[in-house]
Write a structure and sequence with these properties.
Elements: H1 3-12, H2 14-40, H3 61-76, H4 79-89, H5 91-99, H6 101-108, H7 112-145, H8 163-183, H9 186-215, E1 217-219, E2 230-237, E3 243-244, H10 246-252, E4 268-274, H11 279-307
Antiparallel strand pairs: 1-4, 2-3, 2-4
Helix pairs in contact: 1-7, 2-3, 2-7, 3-7, 4-7, 4-8, 5-8, 7-8, 8-9, 8-11
Length: about 300
Amino acid sequence: MTLRSALLSFRIQRFETTIVAGAAVLSVVVSALVIWLFSAGGYAACLDGSGPVLSVQCQSLAARALSRVMFTSLGIVPIFPVVAGLLAGGPIVARELESGTARLAWSLGPSRMRWFAQRALPILALVLLAGTAIGLTAQALLHTVNPAVDLDRSFTAFRGRGLLVGFEALLVASIALAFGAFLGRLVPTLILSLLLLGGLSQLIDRTNRSALLQEAQMTNGEAFAWDTDYFLDSRLKFPNGDILTYEEAVLTHPEVNDGWMDDQPPYQDVTLYIPGSRYLEIERREAFLRGGLALGFVGLAAVAVASRRPR
């Protein structure tokens, strides 16, 4: 794949790529400006974590406006991978199949796979880079509003910052690419991709949670920190060593539903969690999972392109 072919791919999807790249650049520039104004204006002292600071400076219009922009920006970060992935990934093959230009290119070119790689890889790379830029920008904003928290050792805004934003965008784009290659029509591609994404996200979340439960630490609550650790579940621990969910406990220990007069229930409440010190490890693991799934969907798209009959 040459630079010329990559530029051709961007030119074909200039509307979508301009929106995705432009949104990422605008977000980075605006966020950098807001962070600079917030720090240079001395407003960082307004976020000491103990509650609102009732000083003239912290209650000024500028302080409120900057804080509002930062929190709004953080709130919309999870939306970017979905919009960017669908917008950029869906048309890569679907639009050319729908318009008939793909079949013309296949009749003139020596290899469908070369055509597919020239169309798909530059767009997917752009989506990954744009998503990663948004994720790193969100991390910088989060550090500004939570300066006391070590984000490398905290699950604060997990999946809403850092590398995972970029790989989530790549996964969405790859799903849309695969549907576009199979369906050959843009609108059904976008609709079905969005539906599959919802189900796949739930499946990934349940799978990750099940895996993390096998590695979780357990505490009675004293060692757990909501601002840094990753909460997984609350369980009931009985004197015989059983650690059960409430539903399991009701079935095997009927005394859970019985009243007691001494305010001493026959179990201990415990919390299962992943400590914040493992954040980077878990982040890389989930990024690897999403990257692997994205590669699988790209492979399905390639198979669909290779097996299509000329019409």
